[in-house]
């Protein structure tokens, strides 16, 4: 089976390392004038306007991301709640003006590499209050849904995910990636970004679901072509990455599906050489229901992590701000001051964000391990640390002033130099690939993206700034070795106080 021929993941991973990955052309340039439209449009599709409730739920972002709110399995997800989740996951939260050729840029609820917004959201649902069963595409620009298919297509989701229960959640969001929208700038590294940027959006979706007590489950094991097909995706240019299902399962009909023609999208612009991305995606694709079942059984063995942590963690720092307010205020910090954050704030961010998710690849835990460089945290000595998730404590690896290392590892940028803390998400890729095959590469990147997305929210909730970063892969591993000698970096985040304008 191709998925377990894991040289493909290694080839992609090593080939897209900074600074010298052979799949990256060092002479490649990107000019903002080339920025592709970040909006996918459908021709002749009926539009349904959404009116998201942007008011506060009264639930704090810290509570929402921690997963400590008791879910209500009887909750009914209607179009209003769905609209809010869509808005706070992928909606436009601010518009900034830049000098030409960039001009106005519409920023969204979750961070995204290069603000290129290559992740789209589709909805597959049964009849819910205010919305008929169908397949829809979310248009953040017009805050509307484009109707792609009418009818209950949840049966296709059940089949593609090898789910035998004859019932499925009333609403499933499908997150997809348009490869060229991001690879135009970042080349083949785009395929890592896909999961980072999908992960940060998912972190927001989960926080919103949690604030409204909606049970959820993320699925990353599915027959790729089947999901892509019901969404009408052009598989060489775009692909489904993850399914996010809400609420308790509801029976679906066994009647044949209507012979419905799907609405057509406008052509995707800015083609780019997608060979490396297509190869990695194909090698990590699951091709049959049987393969998905076998993959799920393998994932169930939870080789990567077995310990389930209890839900009541100590809260060190707190905030009254609601999750909605935090999402609206979130943005990537563009300049950090050298001011310290407190130990309580750092431990709260780490503890609240690493409680894991409910998914088909992990249950209430995170696959990634957390390494840190502490530059300025009151009560914590400067140095390199490993975060012990179970005990919620920092284990000192090396003492000392390390701003220059921190700045260098983050691609020699000022942000990681100035930040109070830089955080590195790392996995034993060999072990992950052994268990999950090439699909494990998707899973490990997604796990990092979701956890980092939660850290963004937790930081902003505590009135601290944050930004995602990119990094020199092997140098990070070398720096944290021998502790991290068999680990690969999946994500880098910097947190700290914003410098005054
Ligand atoms: C995974 C990730 C990596 C990023 N890397 C960098 C980086 O290396 N340098 C940088 O200045 N910003 C980086 N950013 C910030 C993005 O440019 C920013 O998210 C984007 O412009 C959208 O803006 P917003 O986060 O303020 O909404 C990164 C963001 C993410 C999610």
Name the structural class: alpha+beta
Bound molecules: flavin mononucleotide
Strand composition percent? 15-25%
In the predicted model, the low-confidence regions spanning at least 5 consecutive residues are 303-313
Assign the CATH superfamily of the largest domain. Answer: NADH Oxidase
Helix-residue proportion: 25-40%
- Would you count the extended β strands for me? 19
What's the pLDDT, averaged over the residues?
93
The total tally of domains equals 2
Question: What can be said about the biggest beta sheet?
Answer: 7 strands, antiparallel
What would CATH call the class of the largest domain?
A: Alpha Beta
Radius of gyration: 21 Å
CATH topology of the largest domain: NADH Oxidase
Query: For this entry, what is the oligomeric state of its chains?
Result: single chain
The strand order across the widest sheet is 2-7-6-5-8-10-9
Cα shape: globular
CATH architecture of the largest domain: 3-Layer(aba) Sandwich
Chart the SSEs and their pairings.
Blueprint: H1 7-15, E1 42-43, E2 47-49, H2 61-66, H3 79-90, E3 92-97, E4 104-108, E5 119-125, E6 134-139, E7 144-150, H4 154-160, E8 167-178, H5 179-186, H6 190-211, E9 216-219, H7 224-231, E10 238-251, E11 264-265, H8 275-283, H9 289-300, H10 323-329, E12 341-342, H11 343-353, E13 369-374, E14 377-378, E15 383-388, E16 393-399, H12 403-409, H13 414-418, E17 421-427, H14 429-436, H15 439-461, E18 465-469, H16 473-480, E19 488-496
Parallel strand pairs: 12-14
Antiparallel strand pairs: 1-11, 2-7, 3-4, 5-6, 5-8, 6-7, 8-10, 9-10, 13-15, 13-17, 15-16, 17-19, 18-19
Helix pairs in contact: 3-6, 5-6, 6-15, 11-15, 14-15
This protein binds flavin mononucleotide (FMN).
